[in-house]
TrEMBL record:
Protein's UniProt keywords contain Transport: yes
PANTHER family linked to this entry: PROTEIN UNC-119 HOMOLOG A (PTHR12951:SF5), RETINAL PROTEIN 4 (PTHR12951)
The protein, known as: Protein unc-119 homolog A
Organism in which the protein naturally occurs: Collichthys lucidus (Big head croaker)
InterPro entries: Ig_E-set, PDE6D_unc-119_myristoyl-bd, PDED_dom, PDED_dom_sf
């Protein structure tokens, strides 16, 4: 089986795309490089919250309509969503920190196979894929992003994956503090969530009905929203 990913754009830059991360805290590192002149990187632990869904006790149900009418959208708001959003919940103007994701890479830990990779150098956007999906369950996610001239406190990402209107998995990351004008990298190893054979077959037979919302928060306020659609048949 192979897959491809198509970005539906995002609230900041329609050329970027994403692939899911994970929520197993076995290994997580965040590196910060304040410049591109070869200075040593400062490494710190990346906090990973336990993945949750709207059926968890204490998570109130929310709707897209409710959030679009809200002046401020918080992490708790999006954790209560029951299905993929149809609209973006924030505008590009709300990314006042100039956060820009420039690289995503997912690698199979057992075989070393690169399952998905997208890079965004200044002049081009390139992707590797589709690639074969192996039967092993452990994945390594590498992500790189830059920030503008303001420091970022309490940077957090929540990514929710759905097939049709069913929540498959919700991931919750805390990146912590990011220095101004810095390029940041983090690495995370996670266990691929198990799916039934029936669910896998349905996802293969219905490409691009597997979708994700990625929400980015600074100080508990939504500043970016990315969307992506996935095909598990190589796009054919």
């Amino acid at each position: 089986m192979s897959y491809s990913c198509t970005s539906r754009g995002n609230s900041q830059d329609p050329s970027s795309a994403e692939k899911p991360a994970g929520n197993n805290p076995d290994r997580d590192t965040l590196g910060t490089d304040g410049s591109d002149n070869g200075n040593p990187k400062q490494l710190a632990a990346m906090k990973v919250k336990k993945g949750c869904n709207s059926t968890d006790v204490g998570v109130p149900v929310t709707t897209e309509e409710d959030l679009l009418a809200s002046a401020v959208i918080t992490p708790e708001d999006v954790l209560g969503l029951q299905k993929i959003t149809e609209n973006y919940l924030c505008s590009p103007d709300e990314n006042i920190y100039n956060i820009d994701f420039t690289r995503f890479k997912i690698r199979d830990m057992e075989t070393g196979t690169v399952l998905f990779e997208i890079t965004k150098p200044p002049s081009t956007v390139s992707a590797v894929g589709p690639a074969a999906v192996t039967s092993s369950s452990w994945r390594q996610l590498s992500v790189e992003f830059t920030v503008g001239d303001m420091p970022i406190e309490n940077f957090r990402m929540i990514e929710r994956h759905y097939f049709r209107e069913k929540l498959l998995k919700s991931f919750d990351f805390e990146f912590g503090f990011c220095m101004p004008s810095s390029k940041n990298t983090c690495e995370h190893i996670y266990e691929f969530p198990p799916l039934s054979e029936i669910s896998i077959r349905e996802m293969i037979l219905h490409p691009y009905e597997t979708q994700s919302d990625s929400f980015y928060f600074v100080d508990n306020k939504l500043v970016m929203h990315n969307k992506a659609d996935y095909s598990y048949n190589g796009g054919t």
